[in-house]
Design goal:
- This protein is α/β, with parallel strands linked by helices.
- It has one domain: Transcription Regulator spoIIAA, CATH 3.30.750.
- Helices cover 41% and strands 38% of the residues.
- A four-stranded mixed sheet has the order 1-2-3-4.
- Strand 1 and strand 2 form a beta hairpin.
- Helix 2 packs across helix 3.
């Protein structure tokens, strides 16, 4: 389960993610990102787990210019590996 808490910080819409990033939550995240008028940042401070689909989604977000902040080190490494493989 993923809880998404939207906030605004300067020019950025921040989506604070809490819990697990998995395939079931990706459509909701995509909708929130696409609906936003500001630049988007995903704050992963409270993320406990990411599935392979979640990591691929995060890699695609970075490719699209979405900022990922406070990312746990193991997820950051996995996202970096996924981006290199693309």
């Amino acid at each position: 389960m993923l809880k998404i808490t939207p906030t605004v910080q300067g020019d950025f819409a921040i989506l604070l993610l809490s819990g697990r990033i998995d395939e079931e939550c990706i459509p909701q995240l995509e909708s929130l990102i696409n609906a936003e008028q500001r630049a988007v940042a995903l704050d992963l401070t409270e993320v406990t787990l990411a599935s392979r689909a979640g990591v691929r989604f995060l890699a695609q977000c970075e490719e699209a210019g979405i900022r990922i902040q406070s990312c746990p080190a193991y997820i950051r490494e996995w996202v970096s590996q996924e981006r290199r493989a693309q």
